[in-house]
Amino acid sequence: MAERRRDQGDGRDAGDTGASRPGEALERAWGDLVATARRTVSDGLVVGTSGNVSVRVGDTVLVTPTGVPYDRLTPEDVCGVTLDGRRVLGSLVPTSELPMHLAVYRSTHARAVVHTHAVHATAVSTLVTELPLVHYMSAALGGPVRVAPYATYGTEKLAENMLGALRDRTACLLQNHGTLAHGATLDQAYDRTAQLEWMCRVWLTASSVPGLTPTLLTEDQVARAGERLKGYGQP
Fold first, then answer.
1. What predicted TM-score, i.e. pTM, was given to this entire model?
2. Tens of pLDDT, residues 128-179
3. Do 181 and 101 touch, CB atoms closer than 8 A?
4. How many CB atoms neighbour CB 2 within 10 A?
5. What distance, in Å, lies between the first and last C-alpha atoms of the chain?
6. What is the pLDDT of residues 92-129, one digit of tens each?
7. Which residues pair with 185 in a beta bridge?
8. Rounded-to-integer distance, Cα 72 and Cα 146, Å
9. Distance from chain centroid for Cα 128
10. pLDDT tens per residue, range 30-49
11. Residues 6+ positions from 226 with CB-CB distance below 8 Å
């Protein structure tokens, strides 16, 4: 059974309908999903219709449809599938990266997934097999961020490679492709995506200085930072 987690936005569980009817919960979740998808564009994490976003409500996964600009999505464009990929809501075809999203939900307690083609993260994915520990915020993603070996987009092989890189992590890089992050809420999944892109930019910037090599943290230093991060923020 999926672990129940609290939604950071309104205090509800991500898949909890409270007193609302199931349809109202789905409608609210779709609105949040569309807003998050549009944010990936406005923040420069994707170009055009690249990347995709999903959120789980009960046993239904709402996901962005393939090939539709996010600014054109309306409440009537809701796209929902079951955990085995059977379409149960809407008439639009789901994102081609549906196998990755469903693999995350079947293998973790995630309630939201964000996949992007962020520039700096994608660049790093072509250079290393693991993001160097340039900042302690790696701990917020579970530790050193791995790079999933390349596979053709939209395939089960890519989903398999991604799950390997995600083991004990909440985000990974996809070689020559982009990023994937998950969380208990859309906000959390998005924040982890943004944090990963920022760390990649920091490493690329530091690495570009001629004659100097970035100082890296040890895994122990990152782990100790992770313990402190558990108490970060307001109670």
1. 0.89
2. 999 999 999 999 999 999 999 999 999 999 999 999 999 999 999 999 999 9
3. no
4. 15
5. 27
6. 999 999 999 999 999 999 999 999 999 999 999 999 99
7. none
8. 34
9. 20
10. 999 999 999 999 999 999 89
11. 136, 139, 140, 143
Give the list of residues 6+ apart from residue 25 with CB closer than 8 angstroms, or none.
15, 16, 17, 18, 57, 58
> Tokens 């969380």 map to which residue?
183
How many C-beta atoms lie closer than 10 Å to residue 157's C-beta? 13
C-beta of residue 74 within 8 angstroms of C-beta of residue 68 = no
With CA atoms as reference, report the closest residue to 111 among 154, 37, 53, 65. Answer: 53
- Paired tokens of 226: 């992770």
Phi, psi of 218 (to 5 degrees): -90, 160
Q: Which residues are catalytic?
A: 97
Burial class (CB in 10 A: 0-12, 13-18, 19+), 86: exposed
Vertex 146, ends 144 and 150: CA angle to 5°?
170
Environment class of 12 (CB within 10 Å of its CB; exposed 0-12, middle 13-18, buried 19+): middle
18: its two tokens: 């409270």
Q: Are strands 171-174 and 147-148 parallel, antiparallel or unpaired?
A: parallel
The three-class DSSP label of residue 67 is coil
Q: What is 75-126 written as a DSSP string?
A: GGG--EEETTS-EEE-SSPBPTTHHHHHHHHHHS--SEEEEE--HHHHHHHT
Q: What single-letter amino acid sits at 132?
A: P
